[in-house]
Amino acid sequence: MNRALRRISIAILVMFVLLLINVNYLQGFEPASLTSKPGNSRAFYAAQNQYQRGSIVTSDGVTIAASKLSTDSNDSIKYQRYYPLGPEYAPVTGYDTLYSQTGIEGAENSLLSGNDSALDVRKVIDLITGKTTKGATVEVTINSAAQAAAYNALAAGGKPGAVVALNPKTGAILAMASYPSYDPNLLAVHDGNQLIKNDNELLADKTQPLLNRALQATYPPGSTFKIVTSSALLTQSPSTTINTKFYSPTQLTLPQTDHVLTNDLGETCGDGSGQVPLITAFAQSCDTTFAKIGMDLGAPALNAMAGKFGMNNPSLTVPLGVAPSNYVIPPSEADTAFSAIGQFSDTVTPLQEAMFAAAIANGGTLMKPYLVQQVIASDASTVQTTPQSVLSRPVSPSVASSVGQMMRAVVQDPNGTAFGFNAQNEGGLVIAGKTGTAETGTVTGLDDAVFTAFAPYANPDIAVGVIIQGGGYGASAAAPIAVKVIQAYLNTLRNQ
Amino acid sequence: MSSITAPSPTVDPTGPMVPVARSRRRTELIMLVFAVAVTVFAFANVGFSLKGKLPSGIVEYMAPYIVMVLIAHLAMRRFAPWADPLLLPLAALLNGLGLVMTYRLAAQGNLLTAPLSSSATMIQVIYSALGIGCFVAVLVLIREPRVLQRYTYTLGAIGILLLALPALLPASISEVAGAKIQIRLGSFTIQPEEFAKLALAISFAGYLVAKRDVLALAGRRVLGIDLPRARDLGPILAVWAVSLLLLVFESDIGTSAVFMGLFVATLYIATSRTSWLLLGFVMFVVGAFAASKLFAHVGERFDIWLHPFAGQNPSHNAYQLVQGLYGMASGGLLGKGLGGGQPYITPLVQSDLVISAFGEELGLAGLMAILLIYGLIVQRGLRTAMLVKDPFSKLLAGGLSFMLALQVFVIVGGVTRLIPLTGITTPFLSQGGSSLVASWILIALLARLSDTARRPPPRPIQEEGLTQVVTLK
């Protein structure tokens, strides 16, 4: 039997040698290809949780996302992400779950997690000096006072909507609030089952709290689009001034249809002569006047100007992705008339609303909006700074000045649609803006309220876009929110 | 080959011509201290890695372990003084590493499923105590391995019954992860197959030692191979049928392979007839192939093995295997260190895929060391089989050693994608009591067999000085 035992021994030896060879192949030669498999989350988790993740802070130093040591002793992940101000900053920070990141957490993930190659030299220095490597801190352009004013005003109104405020001179995003919002802390939990439960609840919520309306939702601009129509008009015929009179009927029958366009409540524009100065038509937001101007300009001219203001651009990032605001060339003249007053298929994001005002406020030069001011490594050195750049020059300084004057009339002229919201010019503050009340086509709901504004008129520091879904009149629902954000921001500038 | 068939102890170039038999219990104690030291160090390592300090349970978990191992050693001194000195230290080291890994996995939970309960380590310590208790009991109760031969048919019946039991019971108390392999009594579960394998190993040895002369008779010669006579095919066909039933009714391919392999290997050792080996191998492969075509759950195993990264496999059927492979890949040559990897991502990492957790945290180096520990145990068993005189003991030692080797091959080969992955336990390392207790009983049987093999013959009654040695020419 020993002969058979020897042979069995050889068979066993072969089995073990096969195992050893296979294990050597697997762990000695295969790791590179296995690690790069798309489904392999180990490297991702390891990299994600290797260092203490960097914080996200506002430009005035308020921490809006940070990582601390996890207090749960059973936790497989060392650091717990938390968001001190939760819903208010959710559109900015996004969230950092076990599996994915959104918002700034996603856009700047490699720097926050400490894995970006830009941090390599500092990691070597940390290794030599014995310091613990941490992720980089991302400083966003948000002003905490403007952000608080924006979110609180939205929450007080209780209607879904969003506010974006820009520094018109630089493009820096000063506020970006969306309502209803969510608490990103709910998605930062490390308990996988709890995470899935929280995520499903947020996804099932009919009010869509996860939607960042400021960048990702589009609404009809309504009459705020008259900024684009006016810009196209003033650019096309240099002889036209804001005092040039235009045809302004109470009723405008649209070509090739029997559809009759009236002003909002069928009211008469100006002095009733049927001819009004452009500035009066703008301040009173006469639909018939601008519908006629739009038809005369033609859809291609409107389309070109809309594009220069930043619409029809699917590749805009701040660095968060921005849904494109659309001007669709209408198939008929009648539809062109509607498109000239911000109806038909025109849609804009709240960011785009702020960009309308920002371009006018900055003398016709539209700065590219950006959200990240700078990225600072754990050794306090700056890793990168977002350079200011010009996105486009939609209008000349003189046209910008003319449109600006008309926007001032909207708020300052006793007949202006937004007169009364800052008529006293408290503290010498003069605001210029444009209201919009967009019919959404829904039978029951109120119209969307839209407002775009900049201030101070003489030397603008802030441009704001507000859209309140189902808010009704832009003047009553959206303008007060814009004014609060403007005042909050200018107060912080004054106190500096 | 040289590592398996070690030089015969009768040839000791440094010693005197007439070998002085030594019990070598001192060697066992020294090796045992080494095994315990490695375990305690590894346990401390987990604590430092995860919490930055000595783990709070180090005394609570390690003290009972050390006491148990010492009791086992004392039992060896008392009841099996001539047993192989490496068997106990090797088993103690594997058991210790299993405790360390259970503690490590319980301390840091899975992201998606609930972590192991905090009492998992203590339960595993209790199972270890139970295992070592059984080890001592076997040494005390079975003083002579040949007595087992008397129970050939009793143990055979018990083995078959234990194997069949889960299939006969309703799925609610016998199904786990799609395979019907356990008996659940409240929160307590037993995997009867672990004990069935031992009973059948003894039964096969007893049966074949009685029938081997008949089975060794040659039938027709085909292609240079002596085929057995058709009338002798009965036993192998019966075992084949049972193993296929296991495959189909309990979805338990791994155990089926180990069971069939055990029988064929014992049959071959008994008869020295290569044809039995070939026949058994061909029968199993044909059976498994047919089952893979006929039954979806068997076919799925093959698909996972051949195409783990194809289509939906990585996130569905092959998720467990693929995650285990990712874990071992992330471990690389030297591993992430105990507590440094992410083995908890892999489902069921504490039981079927525990070897991938070792691969991830101890790396290729650690995994090879563990494989060599298994290899050494098998080698000690085979050496015992060579040394022991009695044919039944020879068959039993050879069968048990082969079974252990085959089990390691099936599970480690499955996890490392050498062969299709089937859910069987990794001896000593997997979390769970049945496997641990059965493994300790297996070590006790090998220890008893080696004690018999190495025990020096009784001294002659006469004083040597009074005896006249006459050489006849």
Short description:
The complex is a heterodimer of chains A (496) and B (473). With 496 residues, chain A is of the alpha+beta class. Chain A has helices at 2-29, 31-35, 42-48, 90-93, 103-107, 109-113, 120-129, 144-157, 192-204, 213-216, 226-236, 278-283, 287-297, 299-308, 333-340, 350-361, 397-412, 474-494; strands at residues 56-57, 63-69, 79-82, 137-140, 161-166, 173-179, 245-247, 251-253, 260-262, 275-277, 366-367, 372-376, 382-385, 390-392, 432-438, 448-455, 462-468.
Q: How would you describe this protein?
A:
The complex is a heterodimer of chains A (496) and B (473). Chain A is α+β, with helices and mostly antiparallel strands and 496 residues long. Chain A contains 18 helices and 17 strands. Chain A has helices spanning 2-29, 31-35, 42-48, 90-93, 103-107, 109-113, 120-129, 144-157, 192-204, 213-216, 226-236, 278-283, 287-297, 299-308, 333-340, 350-361, 397-412, 474-494, and strands at 56-57, 63-69, 79-82, 137-140, 161-166, 173-179, 245-247, 251-253, 260-262, 275-277, 366-367, 372-376, 382-385, 390-392, 432-438, 448-455, 462-468. Chain A has a 6-stranded mixed beta sheet with strand order 3-2-1-4-12-13, with no helix packed on it. In chain A, strands 6-5-17-16-15 form a 5-stranded antiparallel beta sheet. In chain A, strands 7-10 form a two-stranded antiparallel ribbon. In chain A, strand 12 (372-376) and strand 13 (382-385) form a beta hairpin. The longest helix of chain A has 28 residues, at 2-29. Chain B has helices at 25-51, 58-79, 87-107, 120-141, 152-168, 171-174, 192-215, 234-249, 253-271, 274-294, 296-306, 319-331, 354-387, 391-415, 433-454, and strands at 175-176, 179-180, 183-185, 188-190, 218-222, 225-228. Chain B is 63% helix and 4% strand. A two-stranded antiparallel sheet of chain B has the order 1-2. Chain B has a two-stranded antiparallel ribbon with strand order 3-4. Chains A and B meet through helix 1, helix 2 and helix 3 of A and helix 9, helix 12, helix 13 and helix 14 of B.
